[in-house]
Design a protein that fits this description.
Radius of gyration: 17 Å
Largest sheet: 2 strands, antiparallel
CATH class of the largest domain: Mainly Alpha
Structural class: mainly alpha
Shape: flat
Order of helices and strands: EEHHHHH
Number of strands: 2
Number of domains: 2
Distance between the termini: 52 Å
Strand content: 5-15%
Number of helices: 5
Helix content: 55-70%
CATH architecture of the largest domain: Orthogonal Bundle
CATH superfamily of the largest domain: Homeodomain-like
Strand order of the largest sheet: 1-2
């Protein structure tokens, strides 16, 4: 008998394992990258990795800081970053 596994989605809804695979952050990212490639119309591109990381990292840091009441020590712990790395990223993304 197969056990049904519930997964909490980003919007805090419960999904079964099959639906979760289609509604995960990684599936959304993959879809957006595929859309980006389709819009290139044969033109070359570069720097995709850094562009994508910054598009995800900035809102991740913003939301975490808001969640922690802008307490950098708590935010760095949640993010798994050192406080100095978090401060560098706050400066990098002009989040101060």
């Amino acid at each position: 008998m197969q056990q049904r596994v519930n997964v909490i989605n980003i919007d805090n809804t419960k999904l079964d394992k099959r639906k979760a695979a289609n509604n995960s952050l990684s599936s959304h990212v993959k879809g957006m990258v595929e859309r980006y490639f389709s819009q290139l119309n044969g033109h070359e591109t570069s720097g995709l990795h850094s562009m994508l990381i910054s598009e995800v990292e900035k809102p991740l840091i913003e939301a975490t800081l808001q969640y922690c009441g802008h307490n950098q020590t708590k935010a760095s712990k949640i993010l798994g970053l050192s406080r100095s790395t978090l401060r560098k990223k706050i400066d990098q993304y002009d989040l101060s």
